[in-house]
Design a protein that fits this description.
The chain is an alpha/beta fold. The chain is built from twelve helices and twelve strands. Strand 8, helix 7 and strand 9 form a beta-alpha-beta unit. It is globular and about 55 Å long. It starts with a strand and ends in a 31-residue tail after the last helix. It binds 3-isopropylmalic acid (IPM) and manganese (II) ion.
């Protein structure tokens, strides 16, 4: 039996609840496809500060260095917003991304038919929406130096910096993904104002010449934000720098109806990091009502891109879809006044489908061939091409 080690970092707020369900589904997929997972649980974020005085404790660094893949819940805690930077939960997440070198963050946004009415947008806008956001993750404003506040506290600075190699490598991820999709890359920048964006646009254009079969268009970020809700079906792969991608991916969540549904995969040269895009949601933490689907769909991405187990990944994606088709809804995606199930029940239902019904013969579960997450595979640098 193949064995993999997965570092599980539940983090803060609803992180532990949704991660527990993601793990349940990962175990079910392992059982079904004869793969065994060794999971090590280590703290990050406010949980790291509480246990070791560090949002990314040494124990956690060591565990992720040993792991084949990293599964994360969420970070962030009320009360730590004004903590010194080295004690902020978010600092732990940024340090983790840097440690793993995961420069390409993939955020697939696919509108599912049974949830069309959960979006505030008109149904005709949502037809066929299937966007893959490729967000640069280890550069830009989040990491640029110098940064900080002056002694009086009345002046603050952050630095937006990108180099050509940083832009090229994430652009290649976007073009490779587009090749396996609808062959369109939309690159987002603010080149009418920012020098960094001018370099971004030039570099992406040059990389695009290596992909004559993929169409490339450039949009200013303000216009891209508008197009994303006025004509979302016009996008295929949306390539962005770090902060623009953070903002546009939350906006894209409006298309699918809930932030709680969206997964992500962060990839680089080594082990990948897989996490839902939502935050720690302290207002609903511990109540058992959070939607675990973002975390569970992140497990599908972990199987697909992290461990190269496409059949197991398909089984998880199909199980999510089957359970939604059957009408299961957590509170965030239930119709007003309609009954909703909790975090655990949603996890159990999806794991149950992975174990018993889905996987090889979709017809048995009444699902068409299409899965909930687009099957864009692409080359991860320094590793063999996916089958
Ligand atoms: C995300 C989150 C993080 C980010 C925060 C928690 C640092 O919003 O993954 O989108 O800004 O990258
Ligand atoms: Mn965000």
């Amino acid at each position: 039996m193949t064995q993999y080690s997965v570092a599980v970092l539940p983090g803060d707020g609803i992180g532990p609840e949704v991660t527990a369900e993601a793990e349940r589904v990962l175990r079910a997929a392992g059982q079904r496809f004869d793969v065994s997972f060794t999971m090590s649980h280590v703290p990050i974020g406010a949980a790291g500060v509480a246990s070791a005085g560090d949002p990314l404790p040494e124990e956690t660094r060591a565990a992720v260095r040993r792991a084949n893949a990293v599964l994360l819940g969420a970070v962030g805690a009320p009360g730590l917003e004004h903590a010194p930077r080295h004690l902020k939960p978010e600092t732990g997440l940024l340090a983790l991304r840097a440690l793993l070198g995961v420069y390409a963050n993939l955020r697939p946004v696919t509108v599912l038919a049974p949830l069309v009415d959960r979006s505030p947008l008109k149904p005709d806008r949502l037809e066929g929406v299937d966007v893959l956001i490729v967000r640069e993750l280890t550069g830009g404003l989040y990491y640029g130096e110098p940064r900080g506040r002056d002694a009086a506290g009345s002046r603050a600075v952050n630095t937006l910096v990108y180099t050509v190699p940083e832009i090229e490598r994430v652009a290649r991820v976007a073009f490779d993904a587009a090749r396996r999709r609808r062959r369109l890359v939309t690159s987002v920048d603010k080149a009418n104002v920012l020098e960094v964006s001018q370099l971004w646009r030039e570099t992406v254009t040059a990389v695009g010449c290596e992909y004559p079969d993929v169409r490339l268009e450039h949009l200013y970020v303000d216009y891209a934000a508008m197009r994303l809700v006025s004509d979302p079906a016009a996008f295929d792969v949306l390539l962005t720098e770090n902060m623009f991608g953070d903002i546009l991916s939350d906006e894209a969540a409006v298309l699918v109806g809930s932030l709680g549904l969206l997964p992500s995969a962060s990839l680089g040269a080594g082990a990948g990091l897989f996490e839902p895009i939502h935050g720690s949601a302290p207002d609903i933490a511990g109540k058992g009502v959070a939607n675990p689907i973002g975390a569970i769909a992140s497990v599908a991405m972990l199987l697909r891109y992290g461990l190269r187990l496409p059949e197991a990944a398909d089984a998880v994606d199909q199980a999510i879809r089957a359970v939604l088709d059957a009408g299961a809804r957590t509170r965030d995606i239930a119709e007003p006044g309609a009954p909703a199930i909790g975090t655990r029940e949603m996890g159990e239902r999806i794991a149950g489908v992975v174990l018993k019904e889905c996987g090889m013969r979709n017809a048995e579960c009444g699902i068409e061939g299409r899965t909930s997450i687009p099957h864009s595979t692409f080359r991860i640098p320094h590793s063999p091409e996916a089958p």
